[in-house]
Design goal:
By secondary structure, the protein is mainly α. It has 10 helices and 8 strands. The strands form 3 sheets. The protein has a 3-stranded antiparallel beta sheet with strand order 1-4-3, with no helix packed on it. The protein has a 3-stranded mixed beta sheet with strand order 2-7-6. It has a two-stranded antiparallel ribbon with strand order 5-8.
Length: about 300
């Protein structure tokens, strides 16, 4: 079996592989509809080295999506592919007992342990103030969005890799999908990025939804399949998650992800990924848009 070594992973990432994923993968993987939780081979805490199976090796050899998804393309190259499969992964994540995370001394001290609405509102204000300052959102839009995102999610939090979108999926010949990259939420570089070890079902799903811009048929199928698997999911809760994630990604693409824009604010004069997310954020404020994607 081939290996690859990741230098200088965070302590949280080592904990996720060694103390969470390694301990639950053998229990859950055989029972999941679609998901495969990855396992590490060994970790070296002293030298901060993480050794995992090579994701192109025999055990995880499968289809990757780096060529189909990038910042320029969004979801435009996907057709309807994976739209009815990815909701299975969300469902699989929802059945994992998350108590193992709360029992971990390092993970439970993380400031990104679990999404909390009251804490998120501080981030919301910082980001919306920035976009308003540069004329890309107005006060009415922000006020309406704040009313929506201020309400708490009714459903439980679930295990999350915090970057749930196609570039972190490997589709095996069996149809199972390996979910990789379990460290995004522990980033010290971009501490305001809204990503958590444990997050709500709607937030996990909406993170994928907002990455699939320029493919509204895919997005609609995806939401319909989510509704089949989560019959108690409500449109207002998905709307809340859509706003949270599109705003967060607009900030990422416009500011955090591009050092050149930090001085001058987000740039949306061209058709950029930042603009795509802001457009989706504004669409998500409209009841008719939510009704359209939610269906009958």
């Amino acid at each position: 079996m081939a290996e690859y070594t990741k230098q200088h992973p965070s302590l949280e990432e080592i904990q996720m592989y060694e103390e969470v994923l390694d301990k639950i993968a053998d229990t859950y993987n055989p029972t999941f509809r679609r998901l495969i939780l990855p396992k590490s081979i060994k970790t070296d805490k002293g030298n901060l080295i993480l050794i995992m199976p090579d994701y192109t090796a025999e055990n995880y050899e499968g289809e990757t999506f780096n060529s189909k998804w990038n910042v320029a393309l969004g979801g435009s190259e996907f057709g309807n592919y994976l739209a009815d499969e990815i909701p299975d992964i969300v469902f699989d994540l929802s059945v994992v007992d998350t108590s193992i995370v709360y029992e971990n001394e390092i993970l439970k001290q993380s400031n990104k342990l679990e999404f909390r609405t009251d804490e998120y509102l501080n981030e919301f204000k910082d980001v919306t103030d920035l976009f308003c300052k540069h004329g890309q959102l107005n006060n009415d839009e922000v006020a309406k969005a704040e009313r929506i995102v201020s309400k708490a999610f009714p459903q439980k939090t679930i295990l999350s890799n915090a970057d749930f979108y196609p570039r972190n999926f490997i589709r095996l010949p069996t149809g199972k999908i390996v979910l990789i990259d379990w460290d995004t939420w522990s980033s010290r570089q971009y501490p305001r990025r809204c990503k958590y070890v444990l997050d709500h079902i709607e937030n996990v799903a909406a993170h994928c939804f907002v990455h699939m811009w320029d493919n509204s048929p895919w997005q609609q199928i995806f939401v319909q399949q989510l509704r089949i698997r989560f019959t108690n999911m409500q449109p207002e809760d998905f709307q809340r998650a859509l706003l949270i994630n599109s705003l967060g990604m607009a900030h990422w693409f416009g500011v955090d992800g591009n050092k050149n824009l930090k001085q001058n604010g987000p740039e949306i004069n061209d058709i950029s990924a930042c603009q795509k997310q802001l457009i989706l954020f504004k669409e998500g404020l409209k009841d008719e848009f939510i009704i359209k994607i939610w269906g009958k």
